[in-house]
UniProtKB/TrEMBL annotation:
GO cellular component terms listed in the entry, alphabetical order: plasma membrane
Residues of the ABC transporter domain: 8-253
Name this protein carries in UniProt: ATP-binding cassette domain-containing protein
UniProt keyword Magnesium, yes or no: no
Organism: Duganella rivi
Keyword Lipoprotein part of the UniProt annotation: no
GO molecular function: ATP binding; ATP hydrolysis activity
């Protein structure tokens, strides 16, 4: 144990769906400023782990502490307010909202909205702030030219970028990204890599579910590998290929259990 409090500590987390034990005794720490790759075959429990940490699922057992405070019973909106945001593996976008409207809607967490409303400026100031922030983020994530299109008309890759914009609207300290480059055109993929590195340089801690080993070597300082609900490795990306348990996890192909 280090004597500094980790940004996030997950201890003895367990989750089953019926008889399917999806997470078993999962424990790990994330330190501030890390970019951690979360790897594992399909069905190994990666998205479920993200869903539990971000309040979209409840754990059967275990503790999740953010900056030393237990958060495992908080609802999703409280976890966002605490400073943890996420993106989704398959972002669904509303039919009738533009890209800009979706980005702005993501800023109206209850806390931020009411705090600004009760300040001097009122609703207009809150809207102006959200608009300015959405404009900057859409520019940063290469969506400025499509800001007035319906969000549902974006390509799969652009929807992933918009998911990242939405996650960043609340100025999180920590972001979980679920397969940000899966199905994304190689040009956009490089832009996502650059954007994530920039965010990390600005102090953001990132946990990224990813299959692409090039991406992981390029971006991540550490990897956590899940196999059938167990953590089987926590190591540098360079150590992955020499780690037999990791190779077994991949070659074994994530058998059902
Ligand atoms: P990964 O993201 O690593 O591919 P998931 O966390 O999505 O894996 O899924 C892990 C296992 O949990 C799979 O067997 C999946 O079918 C099951 N699972 C996930 N969510 C649910 C749910 N809401 N209800 C029942 N089973 C689920
Ligand atoms: Mg998944």
């Amino acid at each position: 144990m280090t004597n500094t409090t980790p940004l996030l500590r997950v201890q003895s987390l367990a989750k089953a769906f019926g008889g399917n034990k999806v997470l078993q005794n999962v424990s790990f720490d994330i330190q501030p400023g890390e970019i951690v790759g979360l790897l594992g075959p399909n069905g190994s429990g990666k998205s479920t782990l993200l869903n539990i940490i971000t309040g979209f699922e409840s754990a059967d057992r275990g503790v999740i502490a953010y900056r030393g405070n237990a958060i495992q019973t908080l609802p999703a909106h409280r976890i966002v307010e605490a400073g943890i945001a996420r993106t989704f593996q398959l972002p669904a976008m509303p039919e009738k909202m533009s890209v800009m409207e979706v980005a702005m809607a993501a800023s109206t967490t209850h806390h931020g909205f009411w705090e600004t409303l009760l300040g001097t400026g009122g609703v207009r100031a809150a809207e102006r702030q959200a608009h300015a922030k959405a404009t900057a983020l859409l520019h940063e994530l290469l969506l400025a030219h499509v800001r007035d299109l319906p969000a549902s008309a974006l390509s799969g890759g652009q929807k992933k970028l918009l998911g990242i914009v939405c996650a960043l609207m609340g100025a999180p300290k920590m972001v979980f990204l679920d397969e940000p480059t899966a199905g994304v055109h190689p040009n956009l993929r490089n832009d996502i890599v650059s954007a994530l590195k920039r965010l990390n340089q600005q102090g953001m801690t990132l946990v990224i579910v990813e299959h692409d080993m090039h991406f992981i070597r390029e971006v991540c300082s550490r990897c956590i590998v899940l196999d059938r609900g167990h953590i089987v490795a926590s190591c540098c990306p360079d150590e992955l290929s020499s780690n037999e348990r990791v190779l077994q996890a991949y070659l074994g192909g994530g058998a059902e259990n």
